[in-house]
């Protein structure tokens, strides 16, 4: 994701042309960004796919539960920083917006002078959460691989009557000799053991 020092493509979603103009003017003053406007949230995923923006700025004034549910679907599908401007809110709406993946939820703050700071916060927060999500996915993947290797090691220990260290060394040697990953060898052993049951 690009930072605000680079030119970025921004999709403004706003049914109110006056409010959309305030957002656009503030964004233009904040930098030389490519800005695309759409008039509402209907077909938003398609609009995002069509225009491929770096950031999505949505002005809903008073978001309904349905609108927040739509944002949840959009954010899960498109994985972009989303800034949402609203005029009124309550704690349930804020919580729903955050759960929906909205990176910056701005209540009663539609002022063009604030656009650059809000957009930078949105991008930074999105990048931080993306990094955490990637780290979590990597940790889960490593844990799953570790479980597979341990299971294969147990199979080798039983079949060859080897202690744990020797079974693991045999798996490693096999992986190196076959120029394959240890987890791939483990999967092959588990599959073979299932077939031979």
Automatic annotation (TrEMBL):
Molecular function (GO) terms for this protein are: RNA binding
Specify the Response regulatory domain's residue ranges. Answer: 9-123
**SUPFAM superfamilies (alphabetical):** CheY-like
The protein in question is named Response regulator receiver and ANTAR domain protein
Supply the source organism for this entry: Bosea lathyri
List, for all copies, the residue spans of the domain called ANTAR: 129-190
List UniProt keywords, sorted A-Z: Phosphoprotein
Biological processes, Gene Ontology terms: phosphorelay signal transduction system
Q: Which domain of life is it from?
A: Bacteria
Q: Which residues form a coiled coil?
A: none
């Amino acid at each position: 994701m690009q930072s605000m020092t680079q030119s970025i493509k921004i999709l403004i979603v706003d049914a109110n042309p006056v409010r959309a103009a305030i957002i656009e003017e503030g964004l233009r003053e904040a930098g030389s960004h490519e800005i695309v406007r759409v008039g509402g949230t209907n077909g938003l995923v398609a609009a995002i796919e069509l225009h491929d923006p770096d950031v999505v700025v949505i002005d809903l004034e008073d978001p309904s539960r349905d609108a927040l549910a739509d944002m949840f679907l959009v954010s899960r599908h498109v994985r972009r920083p989303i800034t949402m401007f609203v005029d009124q809110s309550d704690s349930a709406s804020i919580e729903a917006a955050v759960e929906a993946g909205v990176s910056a939820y701005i209540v009663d703050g539609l002022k063009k002078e604030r656009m650059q700071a809000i957009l930078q916060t949105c991008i930074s927060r999105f990048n931080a959460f993306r990094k955490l999500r990637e780290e979590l996915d990597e940790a889960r993947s490593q844990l799953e691989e570790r479980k597979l290797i341990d299971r294969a090691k147990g199979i080798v220990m039983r079949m060859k009557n080897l202690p744990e260290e020797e079974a693991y060394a045999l798996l490693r040697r096999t992986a190196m000799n076959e120029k394959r990953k240890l987890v791939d060898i483990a999967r092959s052993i588990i599959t073979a053991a299932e077939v031979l049951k």
